[in-house]
Every structure is written in C-alpha cells, then in structure tokens.
C-alpha cells in the first residue's frame, strides 16, 4: 500500500474540544444545529454548513456548499485551524468502555482505491457519493478522515507505542458519547520513513467505516488528475486522509432490526412459522442477548425469545451465507414478513447496537414497531474474508463504535 505523511491542518490544543465534532453522517441538521449552538468554532459550520441558514434550508443547495468554503477559510484566518509546517503522521487513539484502539493517521493513495487494493464490503449510493464529492471538491480538502483496518504489523505497533507513552497533543472526553479521544504527532524522520516503508509491505487495507467518503475522496482525486495536463502522480490530490487501525484492535457491534408489522400473521402464527427454521424458546420479560452465531433474539408483545437457526438453514462455507444478517433476511424478513429489499422497504428499520437492546424494547413497547430482532455481531475476520473474496455484505451489517471525531486534523489537496 502506498501511504504518505501530510501537513495536517488542525486546531490549537486549547480549543480542540470546541472544534471537534461527530462525523457529518451520524446526525441530522437539527441535531448539528443544537450541538453547535453558541459555539462559533464547531466544525459543524464546515461539515454541516446548513446550520448557518434558516431551518429547513436544503443541505444540498449550492449556497450551503459555498458557506462551507467560506467557513473553512475563516477558521484558518482566525487561527482556529493551523497547518503544520512539515509532513507528518499522527496517532489517534479512541477509548470506549475501558478499551483503547490506536490508529495511524496517514494519506492513502487514490490509485490503490481505484485498483481495489483498498477493499470495500458495502455498496455505495451515487447520491451520497455526489454530495461528499461536492464537499471535497469545493473545499479542496478532506475535512473528515475515513476509517480503515490493516493486518497487524509489529513494526507499526512499536512506533505507535513509542509515541503513546509521551504527552499527547490532544486528550479529551467527547461530551456527546463520553468516549476518550487522544492524539499524538509523529515527527521523527526515521519513524516517518519506517511507517511509509511498512505500509508498502501490506497487501490490502479494508474500509471499516466511511465507504461514501472513501469513494468521494478517490473520485475527486481521479478527476483532478484527468484535469491536470501536467499530472505526474505525486501531487497531493492523489492521496486522501485515513485513520488506519490494526484489525485485531477493532470490534464490530451488533446492528439490529425492528419491523412495523407481521405481514398479516398473528403473534401465534408468526412464532409457529418461525419454529420451522428455528428452535424457539421463550425467555420472559428480561432482555435476552444473542449468545453465538446463528442465535437471534426476538422481542414481541412484551416477551423475549431465543431463536436458534436449525442446521441446514445456513451455509457456513459461504462468506455471505454464514452471516446472521443473511440468515435473518432470508428466513424471517423475506420468507415470513415479505420484506425483500432492506434498502428501500419502509416496514423495516435498523438500530445500531450502541443504543442497546433496551432501545428495541422501547420502539416495540411504544407501538411504533411490532417486533424487534437482535443479531450476533459480525467479526473482523468475516469482514476481511468478504472483502478478500470480492463479496459485498448485505445492507446494515456492520456498526463500528466509537466513531472517529472530525476536526482533529484535515488534509488539503494542494
């Protein structure tokens, strides 16, 4: 893999908490408006600039994208974002529930993405790509990083350890999620060379989170290459910003389903039909969490049930067939409930495991939903296997947490 250091643009350490924000795609305009209230230094003014317009303004209006540029320029003029003088790598650590994962902030190569060496496991939607392409293009920068995994590498681990015992540049607990975010600068030329060299021995990087941002960054880079008659291949636009974590440090959390109705079945009929493909056990009123692969948790009419798929109903030799999202989609959502397309069917919704199974119970108890299904989470091994075999995961399979904070460092394309 081809990576390079870069002259990051970042906030002075005394205002990092004011600038840093959640990623643009995990909250809506209203939430961004409320989180940025009274804080002129919030990165939301650049990544969700519709908050500077009257409520109801279309976030895809050209004036909104132009406002992002105006704010990005203003942040630099006011000294809220300052460019490092030298090309550097950075370490970004996240701590959640007492567990810390350490990522290297690098610039990944556009051609590596276009040639499939940076591997995907999800389909992207063209409209979402286009939105981020406009944002990258007009700001001429990757304002937010993407989130990659790489196969573990001892030399890289050693460099990360060397810096993380030092005093960090940034170290704060994010107000919204209570997770710790810590950041160090790698400035030693020999260490910088070693990182570049070690990445060149790594055969693939895996997109964990940020498929649309990766696609947008790479497509804008390729577009700039086409439009430059003197293109050489070493220009800054040939690279985009990523935080790369060793695969062994990452864990994927469950991504659960709630459904609006039982497709005309009574509760009894639904449970009866489930027993054809599953061993169904009533668990009572206490929350039941799936314990292994192919075990599911169903919440219906105030009760929890354990559903264990019967042998022969899944294919453990198929990278996609082994996934519980596939098993539940085929045997429950499609076969019994008639929900064929998870991307477009309005009868199903998805709940990230970070919200806990209590959120599933709440949405059913409120009457908004009829039943909930909790799944055992996908493993990193499964994700890598799917990416390596060129397969695509079904929609809403993986949920990574913690999310990367935006605003710790920005990469300019010139």
| Poorly predicted sequence stretches spanning 5 or more consecutive residues | none
Beta-strand portion reads 15-25%
Number of helices: 13
Number of DSSP-assigned strands: 21
How would you briefly describe this protein structure?
The chain has 414 residues and is an alpha+beta fold.
Can you give a write-up of this model?
Helix content is 31%, strand content 24%. By secondary structure, it is an alpha+beta fold. Strands 1, 4, 5, 6, 8, 9, 10, 11 and 12 form a nine-stranded mixed sheet that branches. It has a six-stranded antiparallel sheet with strand order 15-17-16-19-14-18, with helices on both faces. It has a two-stranded antiparallel sheet with strand order 2-3. Helix 4 packs parallel to helix 6 and helix 6 crosses helix 9. The longest helix has 17 residues. 40% of the residues are buried.
